[in-house]
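Review session, final week

We close the course with one last complete record, chosen because it touches almost every idea we covered. It is ABC transporter domain-containing protein, a protein from Dreissena polymorpha with 645 residues. Go through it on your own first, then we will talk.
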Amino acid sequence: METTTSALDIPVNYILGRCTFGNWDDDDEPTTTTLSVLNVCYVVKERVGPWWKGACLRRIRHKLVLRDACMHLKSGQLTAVLGGSGSGKTSLLDCIAQRADGTVSGKVYFNNMECTPDIAQIYMSYVMQADRLLPNLTVRETLRYSAQLRLPGNASNFDIEEKVSKVIIEMGLRHVAESRIGGGIVRGISGGEKRRVTIAIQLLQNPKILLLDEPTSGLDSFTARSLIASLQTLAHQSGKIVLLTIHQPRSEIFKMFDKVALLSRGQMVYFGEASQMVAYFSQLNYRCPTYTNPADYFIDLASVDRRDNERQGETEERLRVLVEAYGNSMLHKDVVYEIIEDTMKPSTGRQILAQKINHFRPQNSSFFRSLFTLLRRMTLNVFRDRTSYLSRMFLLSLFVPFICIFLGHLGTNQTSVQDRIGLLYQSSQVPAFVAALNAIGLFPVLRDLYYRECRDGLYSATTFLLAYLLHILPFTIFSTATFCSVVYWVTGLQPQSENFLHYSAIILFLHLFGEIMSVLLMGAFMNPALATSNASIILSASGLMASGFLRNVEKMIPIFQWAAWGNIFKYAGEILAANEFHNLQLTCGINGTFCLPNGDSYLKLVYPDAVENMTRNFWAVTGFTSATFLCVIVVFKIRGIPNLS
């Protein structure tokens, strides 16, 4: 039996040394690593059907995704988990990485020590199936910003650049290092190169174990072979454990694997040397035909055919026989014996490692460093895309010509009262809607990247959302300043500078509120279309019922009156009305017709206390905007990270 060095036997001075960047690459750490999976079962809850058909009222069903999975891996090995769709491949990786959302039983061991989320976060990197990359950054910039988030706070710029250059060379990305990632309508690197960038990001923290979920998905056969060859080299030369799931590897790829696990319906059909797989199944009288890809043959052999009841019964019986045969085989017994033997070895450093584990986490970057790294990355990404930054800066200004041409210069006659009301209503609604559109168009890509990086423990929801708020603030100020400067003076509202500043401040807060509200909805709903429809309903209904421009709030039914008190548009509408109509002198027309001599007369009819409550209303608008932002943070924390697998 090969001896292994436990992570718990690491000297104390080495553990303390991990706190410095000089030891971050673990050059002095024992190179032998073991990963053991012992009798892991995984159960998830599921409801059948959509909620509008009553699924939320039905009894929750429990589904067994994995059953008694056992594996024993050593450093320097490339291991593949094979199986058809729904066989439990990704769920197995989730359990190993301590990211499973359901109920997990059994044990996962890292170097004889029971694996915890903290240990998994330090020593494992998980490359998920989808590439979550910002399209307008170059490969080097993507890796640089990720390194600034992943590496310790005392890492210098030179250390970071050295690390970035190392993984670029390691993953064969030198020829595209200065090319943009691309995506959508932005031309960039190929799909295989994006996959390499995603893997390179996870290699920045030099993990002992690299987990990859379907790394060849969506790639052509040559690119897939090239990628697996790179992973094979990585495992053999660096001594890492590389564990990946793969659906249908070609025969040349299959030969690259050191070990193979075959899953079907969450049950282990085979785990052992890839070179011994054909011989093992031959002993069970399932000989792989000549010139047939072994991976394809054995995946088909372990799959259940559901085309009709007869075929389903036959294939289910065959699967039962295969699972039972493997469970009784010496292969399986040897794996269990190795795991038990390893875990029974004495480990003297367990308590010391537990005490020091928080001191050398890879995400041990300071709050402010993470905040400003995220801010710089967001800003660079948006400025590289002309459509994005022009939309943020000038989309609101597109409404200016229509408003100015439609209304012209407002006079002081009686009809100007109605024109002013319409202008103020549009001024309160348009900025919020435009901001919501900007958020729904530009925020999802940042949100998806946040989900991946938060899963890796790089920063919190608070850090991400504060960075986003600081990112949008200059655009919001510029956009609203441009809108207000033209609309206010061209239409001839109150000429005092104080009134203009009050008007601009309210438009700024409403613009911020619209964006923050949309972000809140995108935190609650993964589907941007669902967030869009909800944002439209909330903003339009709020402005319609609570602003007071279309109907006096005091004349509404009681439930709407009470609801208005909890609506930002009520307070914003009162401020805009008081700001414009207070001390406004109006001219009367033909004698005998109803006449408002001044704007204060209008305020007494619709907003009787608006002038006296100006200060209170300003604080209310500020408070509603701030409270909505706090609600966004709470929603993101409660919602958690969805299972991106």
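Two points worth writing down before the exam:
The chain has two domains: 7-360, 390-452+473-639.
Residues 323 and 347 are 34 Å apart (CA to CA).
Good luck, everyone.
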